[in-house]
Amino acid sequence: MTRDEFQKRYENHPLGQTIRQCESTTDVRNLHIYFIAAKTTIHLLKYQGELTAEEEESLVAMLYRITDGKLDTQETAH
Q: What is the distance between the alpha carbons of residues 28 and 11, in angstroms, rounded to a whole number?
């Protein structure tokens, strides 16, 4: 799923709002909270059949890129 596809699909969804919070927060504690909320929501949507395995993987990878970029860490930091 591309970034544009994600924005169109989840613009008004709690997942979209949580991802936006991940992108905008500067507080590490809040970033961790938003990361957990977003990742849990992604897995829930997959469990409910609203996401394919590929979409789930793509969204989780996007989430890691956002948080790793803010934390200046490696992918294994979570």
A: 24
Please give the single-letter amino acid code of residue 77.
Answer: A
Helix axes 28-47, 14-24, angle to 10 degrees: 150
Q: Give me Rg for the CA atoms of the chain.
A: 12
Per-residue buried b or exposed e for 30-64, using 16+ beta carbons within 10 Å of the residue's own CB: ebeebbebbbebbeebbeeeebeeebbebbeebbb
The model's pTM: 0.82
Region 33-56 average pLDDT? 95
- For residues 12 and 6, give the distance between their C-alpha atoms in angstroms, rounded to a whole number: 11
- Asked if 53 contacts 46 with a C-beta cutoff of 8 angstroms, the reply is yes
Residue 9 neighbours by CB under 8 Å, 6+ apart: 1
